[in-house]
Amino acid sequence: MKLRIGVIGTGAIGKEHINRITNKLAGGEIVAVTDVNQEAAQQVVTDYSLNAKVYPDDDSLISAENVDAVLVTSWGPAHESSVLKAIKANKFVFCEKPLATTAEGCMRIVNEEIKADKRLVQVGFMRRYDSGYVQLKEAIDNRVIGEPLMIHCAHRNPVVGDNYTTDMAVVDTLVHEIDALHWLINDDYESVQVIYPKKSKNALPHLRDPQIVIIETKGGVVINAEIYVNCKYGYDIQCEIVGEDGIVKLPEPSSISLRKDGKFSTDILMDWQRRFVDAYDVEIQDFIDSIQQKGEVSGPTAWDGYIAAVTTDACVKAQESGQKEPVALQEKPEFYQTFTTVEK
Amino acid sequence: MKLRIGVIGTGAIGKEHINRITNKLAGGEIVAVTDVNQEAAQQVVTDYSLNAKVYPDDDSLISAENVDAVLVTSWGPAHESSVLKAIKANKFVFCEKPLATTAEGCMRIVNEEIKADKRLVQVGFMRRYDSGYVQLKEAIDNRVIGEPLMIHCAHRNPVVGDNYTTDMAVVDTLVHEIDALHWLINDDYESVQVIYPKKSKNALPHLRDPQIVIIETKGGVVINAEIYVNCKYGYDIQCEIVGEDGIVKLPEPSSISLRKDGKFSTDILMDWQRRFVDAYDVEIQDFIDSIQQKGEVSGPTAWDGYIAAVTTDACVKAQESGQKEPVALQEKPEFYQTFTTVEK
Amino acid sequence: MKLRIGVIGTGAIGKEHINRITNKLAGGEIVAVTDVNQEAAQQVVTDYSLNAKVYPDDDSLISAENVDAVLVTSWGPAHESSVLKAIKANKFVFCEKPLATTAEGCMRIVNEEIKADKRLVQVGFMRRYDSGYVQLKEAIDNRVIGEPLMIHCAHRNPVVGDNYTTDMAVVDTLVHEIDALHWLINDDYESVQVIYPKKSKNALPHLRDPQIVIIETKGGVVINAEIYVNCKYGYDIQCEIVGEDGIVKLPEPSSISLRKDGKFSTDILMDWQRRFVDAYDVEIQDFIDSIQQKGEVSGPTAWDGYIAAVTTDACVKAQESGQKEPVALQEKPEFYQTFTTVEK
Amino acid sequence: MKLRIGVIGTGAIGKEHINRITNKLAGGEIVAVTDVNQEAAQQVVTDYSLNAKVYPDDDSLISAENVDAVLVTSWGPAHESSVLKAIKANKFVFCEKPLATTAEGCMRIVNEEIKADKRLVQVGFMRRYDSGYVQLKEAIDNRVIGEPLMIHCAHRNPVVGDNYTTDMAVVDTLVHEIDALHWLINDDYESVQVIYPKKSKNALPHLRDPQIVIIETKGGVVINAEIYVNCKYGYDIQCEIVGEDGIVKLPEPSSISLRKDGKFSTDILMDWQRRFVDAYDVEIQDFIDSIQQKGEVSGPTAWDGYIAAVTTDACVKAQESGQKEPVALQEKPEFYQTFTTVEK
């Protein structure tokens, strides 16, 4: 019996997940879609030859009896409401980041899920499913490098659009590191600081680019994260964890090597989607399989969504103040104590 | 509508493909299984919760009306017969290597498929679906390195069992290079020669290990292929194509790097199955998708199976003679002229 | 005619340079030595079969008529006095770091050299002569990566002795980066900040280790420098410069690769002396050749020694204050404007 | 006291060694030069400001009382005669390859040196002094990879001149591998075979390029050596030794890495002289030091020169015959039994 999935929001990422579930993964089928643009939703049904009903809104889709689980792939400000409805309807829900646009919104979801007393919510932080990050996590958990002390990481895009603003560097870009890093080292964030290097000539006038974010954890780990979204040369994700007794580092994406014209080279990806395409597949397959096999989701929790919101809030404040800003997390609820890592 | 698949042979590789189709890939379902050991076949149905009927033999499975396509994963000597029956029944068939145990057997399949006038047969050479090989193929086809002149490759296993014999080094091991290399460079083999280096102390008394096979193509490319199946250190596949203007080389499998104890290291796989696990997935998904979307299979053809058989025969002869032996291929039938590469 | 050299201080580094000049390099000869331990000085003459006179002190050595140039390899607090005497005697002088133990002391040397109106003083910052740093410098100067924006670097030692204190992390260790980085990017330092990550269990109780130093330049480049002197795994120097249009990175020291026991590895040096042994040779040969060929020294200037002193002072202050501290450099004298880089 | 050196042949390589000894190395001085072109010899004395006498011929130079050692850097056909004269005069002699143009010529030198009963002759095979080869040798001698079984190597030049002929691929190019490989594995050659791949469009009409040489040793090691002297992309030396338990491989020359324009790259040298420049320095310094310290040369012996001659002869024969040809070495004289490796 397949997991019957409804999709709220049939834009780019919604279509990708629909395609993935329909044509690449096992165990799920799209039975319902909705979008603020009803025609677009209908078009998706046609384009992907779905055997799915188009619903007028998220309420009706969520309450449909044949919908076991929903994907929330609408625009950010609509996420919280849909997720809360899904929890109340006791439906499993996969929500793309952000879980909610405010920390308070995330907390409302957290509390609703605790009330439901069941892991229903998975947040779309796909890095935890990337083969390289999984290897890093295993190495750290197996204490291959001893206690982590420092993390050096970088998030580089070749270029961003006109509508990309300075705060998006942390809210939309660094947020992936923010989720992945506390998971990697099983730690919580204490404070953040933002330093602006000389601005790149490649950046538009309104944008501070690059940025360096210094994050300190409660355990004393110091993270320095470079964000450079107009680096031109490629989409490049770097992550290196320095432990007491050794260092582990994320691999470069696999690529054939070339000797030609006096250069020994490999290609760097220009496109972020290709970098994590496998991770997206594993992530959604895990969503389907966990529900089917355990009756609960696994992966990043609503609490992880809350952590991301509080931490990005602190980063935005630090962008403005130039000071070290605290990351004021509430105490972690008992309910989430055991859901810290991806199941292996 | 899913592709309804029957599986002939429910041993290790059969179970893997059943699991793959059932739990990892989209578009296919196992509806029929058979095995010389009927209990084993029944057990597989139970273990994987299949909604599949157990048939007493390949004839009955192939002729079942609800079977659209068959996977032949029985032992080698049984392949030819099952494949011929499938073609005669106008069913699509994916056959693990070898297509047949003799060149004549492969030719009978080739002729049967030509008679059917439809691409029904795909042979299980999964390397063509490996990301690294696909990149090599693209680079060569795009003439990034000019005309290929030489290939240096190696196929190394950490260890082999007692039943592994000297001829298996070419028939079971090198056969993957034999298929992949002529596909990579769009060329045909002309002759083969086998040289035995000093025998490794790691090899059992009855086995010549390592071996070096020199293959020359009709186009003049010289391939030197090292086979070393008791190398201890890992499962390691190397392939480097030297062209007129540059060199392309297969990447190492993606792995985190570690700095520890005076060493900068990455892990080498010890297990061949992990090396090509993604390629197997892509291969079977391609089998399903090609049938569903084009009404024909793509990927390695029966003719490719014939090439592998003739070439490994020549290698075995060269192992014994110590001489350069011709690879006596018949002329390529018109029918196969256009089916040379994986569709992109 | 060889350059006749006197050596002040015949400890470890003094002996190395004596050996280098006598047995590895061309154009120089040791004609005079002195040490506070006269017996040690005499022993060196014997051990290296030098045709050299032992002097009672630096004054007498410097004023010896047959001494063309002096190497100051005594302990740090004695450097300033010997260098000043050498300048006054119009002798060329190569001084190991620190040029002087205070910024004021460095400035006295600067002023004395300006008064002499001749480049007499070279400071022993050997990284500028390391092949990797030279390549980085060329790439940056040739604008291969556009304007530098950020530098990520690390200075790691396997272990340090009991007498290594927290301030030595900047004064003795980071000082090499401090000299090399402003030279690499042709910029001056503006401020420094020190962050202490969780302390490593490998560090002795009295020592803060690791440390992260954030340096901002007048031009807006942000440097984050990791110092970890009990990292156990090796002596490891990393340096990566992120420019507007690309990134250049220091190579790993050249080492054969090994595939064995499931690992693909290269060796990491455990010993700092082997890391820069070639750079030391090139450095001293350049000292000899510049004098012989141009009648002036080249390489790091007294002003560079002053920069190092002021910057390490600011770092020590930042270690204590936890705040961002200014690097209060005086204006660069006209005299040093043209002596910014190693001659190629 | 410096080693007083006379140079026979002041062409390109002669000038390089003169410059090296005069301006880069310690312990030697050029006191005598000769050349068939006396003006050229005189010009070199002027250009390098040598305190050296120009002799009319090799006889007079060799017999000069103040000449302790000679470098033979004349053209190949003149080597044998000068070396024989030097031995008879009991002078140390460093001879660039070839030691003699025939195996018989080499044997005459061998016999003369045995008669002198003193190691007087060093042949200019500089690879043994290259850091990478030295590391390979250490790893093999320390049995890091167990018994060597196979060697894969390549010698690639970007381009060669019009006068480069097919036999030069072995006589002038592969000869360096021929010397280095038997030294690396402490073995002797048994047979050689040459295979011609498709000819590169980059090669001139008269030249077979690339070539593959298969060499088998008495111990059963199989070497496959690629020679491609018009590969365009760079000067590239590859060497990988496959042992029973692991593989060691020569490193790429040290180079900064660059991320730019979608490529992660390092530079490949275009110029062979830069590849082994350090090895040349170490080689000549070792020649000087060994004489000064031990009263004998070390490094490649006259017997090694003989091995190179016999092996390249067999290769040329194999180029013509297309067959496997024996490497018919005489028995190694007792005298050379102990001079197999570079002293460490």
Automatic annotation (TrEMBL), chains A, B, C, D:
Keywords: NAD, Oxidoreductase. It catalyses: myo-inositol + NAD(+) = scyllo-inosose + NADH + H(+); 1D-chiro-inositol + NAD(+) = scyllo-inosine + NADH + H(+). Residues 137-328 form the Gfo/Idh/MocA-like oxidoreductase C-terminal domain. Pathway: Polyol metabolism; myo-inositol degradation into acetyl-CoA; acetyl-CoA from myo-inositol: step 1/7. Homotetramer. Involved in the oxidation of myo-inositol (MI) and D-chiro-inositol (DCI) to 2-keto-myo-inositol (2KMI or 2-inosose) and 1-keto-D-chiro-inositol (1KDCI), respectively. Belongs to the Gfo/Idh/MocA family. This is Inositol 2-dehydrogenase/D-chiro-inositol 3-dehydrogenase. The lineage of its organism: Bacteria, Bacillati, Bacillota, Bacilli, Bacillales.
